[in-house]
Specification:
The complex is a heterodimer of chains A (115) and B (114).
Chain A (H helix, E strand, L loop, with lengths): L2 E3 L4 E5 L4 E3 L2 E3 L5 E8 L6 E7 L7 E2 L2 E6 L4 E6 L8 E9 L7 E2 L3 E6 L1
Parallel strand pairs in A: 2-12
Antiparallel strand pairs in A: 1-4, 3-9, 5-6, 5-10, 7-8, 8-9, 10-11, 10-12
Chain B lengths: L4 E3 L2 E4 L5 E6 L6 E7 L6 E7 L2 E5 L7 E4 L6 E5 L8 E8 L8 E2 L3 E5 L1
Parallel strand pairs in B: 2-11
Antiparallel strand pairs in B: 1-3, 3-8, 4-5, 4-9, 5-6, 7-8, 9-10, 9-11
Classes of the chains: A mainly beta (115), B mainly beta (114).
């Protein structure tokens, strides 16, 4: 079974600053995908970024980037130049490759961006 | 692409009543998922369909829960004899068939059982 742990229930960052959200996971699988999803207040969950475990290069999407450390089973999300619209719950999620099945989510980190 | 649509947005029901939720996935997506999210937790997998076939069910899905996707398009999730512990946000998501395709989520149906 896979587990995903997000050890930071809440974080706060000032607008234009950089923040890093932590995620660790436990699996015996060698090939898998990792995702960060964002859930704004009262709005639907959307995909922020994804990483394929066999790729050593860290994924980047505009202001969002990840630090993927496969040996440490760590997958942190860095948000640069934080904006008020980044305020949301952020969920880390995992799925083994070759399975047409479920994502396993962490418990989430509530990020508040302040002026 | 109109996104994943879920109805109703909110449902309040008394314990013991039956409720049914509907999900309309993105039209070209042949996979459809149901998740449950309780306060302060991440979404937990309930079940998923590929086209009309229900391929996996979580142990969380007791025999009071049933999901259908009769024509491989929209899906319904029914909860019979609701209990207060069923109070949660029920999320629907859809995706293409490739295993690394991202899930697209709906806004969810918030169920409150009184």
């Amino acid at each position: 079974a896979q587990t995903v742990t997000q050890s930071q229930p809440e974080m706060s960052v000032q607008e234009a600053e950089t923040v890093t959200l932590s995620c660790t996971y436990d699996t015996s699988e060698n090939n898998y995908y990792l995702f960060w999803y964002k859930q704004p207040p009262s709005r639907q969950m959307i995909l922020v970024i994804r990483q394929e475990a066999y790729k050593q290069q860290n994924a980047t999407e505009n202001r969002f980037s990840v630090n993927f450390q496969k040996a440490a089973k760590s997958f942190s999300l860095k948000i640069s130049d934080s904006q008020l619209g980044d305020t949301a719950m952020y969920f880390c999620a995992f799925i083994p490759t070759g399975t047409a099945s479920k994502l396993t989510f962490g418990t989430g980190t509530r990020l508040q961006v302040t002026l | 692409d109109t996104g994943v649509s879920q109805n109703p947005r909110h449902k309040i029901t008394k314990r013991g009543q039956n409720v049914t939720f509907r999900c309309d996935p993105i039209s070209e997506h042949n996979r459809l998922y149901w998740y449950r999210q309780t306060l302060g937790q991440g979404p937990e997998f309930l079940t998923y369909f590929q086209n009309e076939a229900q391929l996996e069910k979580s142990r969380l899905l007791s025999d009071r829960f049933s999901a259908e996707r009769p024509k491989g398009s929209f899906s319904t999730l029914e909860i019979q004899r609701t209990e207060q512990g069923d109070s949660a946000m029920y999320l629907c998501a859809s995706s293409r068939a490739a295993y690394n395709s991202p899930l697209h989520f709906g806004n969810g149906t918030r169920l409150t059982v009184t």
